[in-house]
Predict the structure.
Amino acid sequence: MKRSIGDRLFDSANILVLAVISIIMLFPLYYVFAVSFTDPAEYIRKQGYVLFPEKWTLDSYQYLLSTSSFQNATLVSGFLAVVGTALSLVVTAALAYGLSRKRLQGRRVILLMILITLLFSPGIIPPYLLVRDLGLINSIWSLILPVLTSGWYVILMKSFFDSIPVELEESAVIDGSTDIGVFFRIVLPLSLPALAAFGLFYAVAYWNTFFNAILYINDYTKWPLQLVLRNMLIDSSTQAGGASAAEMMAEQNIPTETLKMAAVVIATIPIMCVYPFLQKHFAKGVMLGSVKG
């Protein structure tokens, strides 16, 4: 179909506007990336205005990764993202699968209780008292168990399980499979799009954990990466290794800002690297429950 001059002008204007918006959004990311790799001497000489570094260096990354507190924080965040995501997926999928089967007694009551959690929030104090009474203060598990599942994710995954034919489970039971075997051997393999989508949501949430760490973790050796990064960004007088900015620049000759930018890059890259591998399933998973035929 032949397009008019007005249509082509309209498309060109849209492309131009979207290109400008993209550049505006990507510029801060590029600036953080460029500064993190800038040679410390060049950064000091240019007084921080570096867009195209003359010399690229890994000094900031080497210093950060050599500090014990940053290493511990990276390990803690990695543990939260891997173990927390795995446990959350198992609990969410198991609860949603049980609620999707009509033979479960009391399923309406359980669904009502889940809906209540979506409508009413307990606030900060009740969860803190619960964590304290369970003896989880200063424990990494305090960052996992209170947020192990989400009522909204349970409802969405339940709608996905509702679309799985019951005949598949019945035939598996006839072949001698148990309910647990049906769940792990049939239901979960058919639920890869949902697991990929919610797995990404959980992983991002666990990796970005910092508020619960402020409430429950007093030992700085157990701080997650985001809490260490937050303290670095809001307090320029101290760094990941505990040294002051003046001492660090005297001993390491590394500007404070390049360390901050390097920490931001380290905290951002893992999630950005995981997403492309889950994109195929993620596109399907985000449509859960939106269309029913």
